[in-house]
EAL domain-containing protein (Pseudomethylobacillus aquaticus), 274 residues
Amino acid sequence: MNAFHYAELQQLAQLDPGAVRREALGLAAVRLDPNGLPAQQVLDIVMSRRFGTDYRPVVDVQSQEVQGYQAKAAFHTVSGQRISAGKMFAVLHRNPLLLYHTELEMKKLQIERAPQVGWLMLDLDIDSFMEGGAGQENPFLQLFRQHAWNEPELIINIVENHNLADAARAQQMIVLLQQSGTSVAMEDVGLRWGMFSLSAFVDARVIKFNRQALQGLNPRAAEATLDWLVSAARRIGVQTILDGVASCEHFDWAQRMGVDYVQGRLFARQHIRA
């Protein structure tokens, strides 16, 4: 029997009551929106734990050795077909309880199966984290505290900051994570409105830049932006990662710009299912 009561299923599917009854009985797979996923499929994926993780290596630019891994969520159907994680999370964001449950179970899996090398960077968005509470009783913090002094070292990569309200919540999230002994990374610093704040920049252990977004600027602007951010990070002891490195040319650019670490399709990854 599924763990969600009638009202929650109705909220997830955004259907009329009759359609919810049909959905609960498995008589229909009504789409959430024209480009979305059927509600029944989403519930099946979550309740049957049809998810896994890709471990993407983070490579030291100077030594060219693996420093650690970043865990990325992966979802699949009963037949094994991969489903877009972006689409899946877009649906899950419509039901905070289901999002929270999925993210917490995913983090447990990602920690349990992780390669025992250097860092383990886990993506966690603010909505998922805050659903667990704004204090030290938050189950995410309890999970991270269990592994705070173990190998691999946990680093939480805060993602999905799109506005000033999220920037304020991100700062609160950083404080809670640091109080629990967990390091913090910030995604795409300086490239989204509301993402960058001086306090978050200073408090982070790692900051990440996206190569595609940077090189979407004109070449002089891209190099000037990255040079400024890398120089500032180095002066305050924050390490830098350039994501999206897919060729030797991209790697050479990162090396020339003084970035500490890189990741992307140029490097092999590991996939593990629940």
Summary: The first strand starts at residue 51 and ends at 60. The mean pLDDT is 81. DSSP finds twelve helices and ten strands in the chain. Residues 2 and 47 are 7 Å apart (CA to CA).
